[in-house]
């Protein structure tokens, strides 16, 4: 009985986490998965949902279109920045790269690295999007 409940809760949490991933929600990650799991499967579902939500919660929401447009149109710095590391969404930029805050939305910043414009989270320097 318990194993059937765990399997059922895991299945429900997995299905619900996919729905949560597709929606824009203020509750995400492990906390959101735990809430969803608790609703579906009680305490066991909360544990399973928390794990599933943590995996789904690592996805990065894209920035608003006005931020993307600003980065596309902003003047490139005069000094060319080249780094050996590949610029990867979800990974921080090296400390040697200067990031410039977005004036109308300070929750985002940008940089031009290896001739690519990237949008980053200023506090962590994590790459949110690479503009092609």
Automatic annotation (TrEMBL):
<keyword id="KW-0732">Signal</keyword>
<dbReference type="Pfam" id="PF06823">
    <property type="entry name" value="DUF1236"/>
</dbReference>
<feature type="signal peptide">
    <location>
        <begin position="1"/>
        <end position="22"/>
    </location>
</feature>
<protein>
    <recommendedName>
        <fullName>DUF1236 domain-containing protein</fullName>
    </recommendedName>
</protein>
<dbReference type="InterPro" id="IPR009642">
    <property type="entry name" value="DUF1236"/>
</dbReference>
